[in-house]
């Protein structure tokens, strides 16, 4: 199956799963509206699509896959709501729309993020068609990937890194944690649900790590070349910008070489796996070529 067809099929299902999960809750309207506002604000759904694509390539269907995909998207959405807050990036716009706190106020936005992250763990705990062992493994891995040892840890390194010029190794560590950890979790969650062999999980971990870095380098390149969704905030910054980025540390041409390196290492990691892995190859190409 081609990636476009796969995405066209699954994106409405992911959307519906997210809507169903939140609409079934008996919670204050303001919180529900704020959670739904950011969940339905039209992100690329890369993490859920990665999870579902891994399952497809491993030849596995799972009745709870969409729920785990929704849980990952909820974690991602919480991170964006909190990242936009005045105490963090202080952004007015996200995906071309007013940020959550601009619409609902800071307190509601913080609580909507808190509610999304806590709900996502419960969603996995309540899966009906996954063994208790696999649920514990998913919850453990998600907590490491999203928490202090993963995305939250990366966010604090990123904030602290704004005070100084980072070395390439330090910048890589920020992005491994801040962006890469949750992308890799999405891939591994698909592999766990598909009952993948340990060798397959190892190859997919390597795939995820390189894909995460490629994703972030392209994000930095888009900021410099002026086509990023963050246009107006960081886009068009020159190579001497104060925030450490790949083009800033390496120059733009060498950042592009680094992007190609991580994309080809990602592809090499899945080369020996059974099955064509066509969707994962197309996703890698999409991440390298994306314009937002
Ligand atoms: C607040 C704990 C906490 C973490 C925030 C993910 C993150 C950490 C911040 C987002 C800031 C940012 C622009 C990071 C660069 C890469 C990235 C994760 C971009 C956003 O992800 P996409 O492109 O977003 O998948 P969409 O809008 O498509 O869902």
From TrEMBL:
UniProt keywords, alphabetically: Isoprene biosynthesis, Magnesium, Metal-binding, Transferase
Q: Does the keyword Transferase apply?
A: yes
Which InterPro entries does this one have? Answer: Isoprenoid_synthase_dom_sf (IPR008949), Polyprenyl_synt (IPR000092), Polyprenyl_synt_CS (IPR033749), Prenyl_diphosphate_synthase (IPR053378)
The signal peptide, as residue positions, is none
Q: Name one GO cellular component term.
A: cytoplasm
Q: Top EC class per UniProt?
A: transferase
Keyword Nucleus attached: no
Query: What cofactor does this protein call for?
Result: Mg(2+)
**EC number(s) for this protein?**
2.5.1.10
Q: Name one GO biological process term.
A: terpenoid biosynthetic process
Please list the reactions this protein catalyses: isopentenyl diphosphate + (2E)-geranyl diphosphate = (2E,6E)-farnesyl diphosphate + diphosphate
* GO function term, MF aspect, one: metal ion binding
Q: Which family does it belong to?
A: Belongs to the FPP/GGPP synthase family.
Query: Protein name, please?
Result: Farnesyl diphosphate synthase
Q: Which organism is it from?
A: Planococcus halotolerans
